[in-house]
Write a structure and sequence with these properties.
This protein is an all-beta fold. The chain has a single domain, classed as Regulator of chromosome condensation 1/beta-lactamase-inhibitor protein II (Methylamine Dehydrogenase, Chain H). The protein has no helices and 31 strands. The chain has strands at about 20, 30, 35, 65-70, 70-75, 80-85, 105-110, 120-125, 125-130, 135-140, 160-165, 175-180, 185-190, 190-200, 210-215, 225-230, 230-235, 240-245, 265, 270-275, 280-285, 290-295, 310-315, 320-325, 330-335, 340-345, 360-365, 370-375, 380-385, 390-395, 410-415. The strands form eight sheets. The chain has a five-stranded antiparallel β-sheet with strand order 1-20-21-22-23, with no helix packed on it.
């Protein structure tokens, strides 16, 4: 059976370091904007009740958000969390199959018990966090750099979700969105953006190039959308401007900074409604459905031209609904319901046979009714208008959630979750 979700679902596909973040979420996608599900798709907002749209049984009803990196997690409209792919973010990894390197993985989604209904989810390299309906953040997975935010004495892996703590050793509260980068994670909470994990490129907007094992307020301030790249973090401010912090050696911050650790701020002609950070590039969508990308552009992932690229408009066949930046590739949902991708295609992540990588963007065959998209390291997923989630690209550790480890450039539906 397949995962189905209703039309209003916000797809938080946080893959790669992060998928597109919209007003609700690390990456939500709602009503034509990119954002997290409060975060599930770049933090999508949790709304309404669950309706199982699959009369044949289906999987979790109404997938609200999906976030991806080497593995992926999704939040259903009922607030359930399921993860697949990378075994570091899965329960009971000792009972999972192993890849050729001996690492555990799961090719079908597994339920994660986060204690209450989730609103959004973020995935980093080996750790994941969910923002719950009550505003708490719970994390699980690897903790060697403080990614679980449970304090400096907690530096071992835990597949049991636990609360992210602030410097006062109290649970983080008021969170509406969460996003995961390489070895850091961040959350929007009221008037602050808080981050935890590794800050070796100032990607958390904190003064020390060190690990932070508590959720700590950054110099980014308040935001309405959040996204994290491998070594940088961006928010959208209330007026619709872009603010980023972290490494700028490949133009990731979309503008100059006075000194390392300072945030950049970039305004555009129209207010921004969606943002997504890839490994070393980023993209935004404005309220006129225009797409702009910047940063590393070695494979045309920022739209062609020189690398690094300044913020530049990327022209696609139709206006852009939302965007997801992955590792050296980008996919965007168009208002027509199609998905267009550009950049590297070594694993079929553009929906083309591996190694086929035209300089112009291509449409992903078979996707006609997409309302959201997310991009991981080398795979992508789209949420369709009927609530189904289809993925394509690399599948060596089950990233596509189709029950196999066979990589495919043609979109495949996620299977019914286990557990």
């Amino acid at each position: 059976m397949r995962w189905r979700a209703p039309l209003l679902l916000t797809l938080l596909l946080a893959a790669g370091p992060s998928a597109c973040t919209l007003l609700n979420g690390l990456d939500y996608l709602k009503d034509g904007a990119s954002a997290p599900v409060a975060l599930v798709e770049a933090g999508a907002a949790l709304e309404a009740s669950i309706v199982d749209g699959n009369p044949e049984g289906g999987g979790p009803a109404e997938t609200l958000a999906v976030a991806a990196n080497y593995g992926a997690c999704a939040v259903t409209r009922s607030g359930d969390v399921f993860c697949w792919g990378d075994g570091a973010i899965l329960p009971d990894p000792e009972f999972l199959p192993r890849d050729d390197a001996g690492k555990p993985y799961a090719a079908t989604p597994k339920r994660i018990n986060v204690g209450e209904a989730a609103r959004s989810v973020g995935v980093s390299w080996g750790a994941a966090c969910a923002a719950t309906a009550s505003g708490k953040v719970v994390c699980w997975g690897l903790a060697s750099y403080g990614q679980l935010a449970r304090g400096p004495g907690f530096n071992f892996a835990s597949q049991r979700p636990g609360p992210a703590l602030t410097q006062a050793s109290t649970a983080l509260e008021g969170a509406t969105a969460v996003a995961g980068g390489a070895h850091h994670l961040c959350a929007l909470a009221g008037v602050a953006t808080l981050c935890w994990g590794l800050n070796n490129y100032y990607e958390m907007g904190l003064p020390l190039l060190d690990s932070y094992a508590f959720a700590t307020a950054t110099n980014l301030g308040a935001g309405k959308a959040l996204t994290t790249g491998a070594d940088f973090t961006c928010i959208l401010t209330a007026p619709g401007a872009l603010r980023c912090v972290g490494s700028n050696n490949e133009g990731q911050l979309a503008g100059p900074i006075a000194k390392a650790g300072d945030p950049s701020e970039k305004s555009f002609a129209r207010p921004l409604v969606g943002v997504s950070a890839g490994e070393h590039h980023g993209c935004v969508v404005d309220d006129a459905n225009t797409l702009r990308c910047w940063g590393r552009n070695t494979a045309g992932q920022a739209g062609g031209g020189a690398s690094p690229a300044p913020p530049q408009e990327v022209t696609l066949p139709d206006p852009v609904r939302n965007v997801a930046a992955g590792r050296d590739f980008t996919c965007a949902t168009l208002t027509s319901g199609k998905v267009a991708c550009f950049g590297v295609n070594d694993a079929g992540q553009r929906g083309l046979p591996p190694g086929t990588a035209p300089s112009a963007a291509n449409l992903v065959a078979g996707v006609e009714s997409a309302v959201g998209v997310t991009a991981g390291q080398n795979f992508a997923c789209a949420r369709l208008a009927d609530g189904a989630v289809h993925c394509w690209g690399a599948n060596d550790v089950g990233q596509l959630g189709d029950g196999t480890t066979v990589s495919r450039h043609t979109p495949r539906p996620i299977l019914t979750p286990d557990g």
